[in-house]
Design a protein that fits this description.
DDE-1 domain-containing protein; mainly alpha; 1 helix; 42 residues
């Protein structure tokens, strides 16, 4: 398996970030939950 360069990973991250905020721009930080690091069960 070939490793991606740092530049390619940064490009992927930037593209994801733009896509994420286009989809979720209507929600402010108070409307988002980081469920990856919480003990909350939904």
């Amino acid at each position: 398996m070939a490793k991606k360069s740092t530049e390619a990973l940064e490009q992927t991250r930037a593209e994801f970030e733009l896509d994420f905020w286009k989809t979720h721009a209507a929600y402010g930080p108070e409307g988002m939950y980081n469920v990856d690091e919480t003990a909350n069960q939904f």
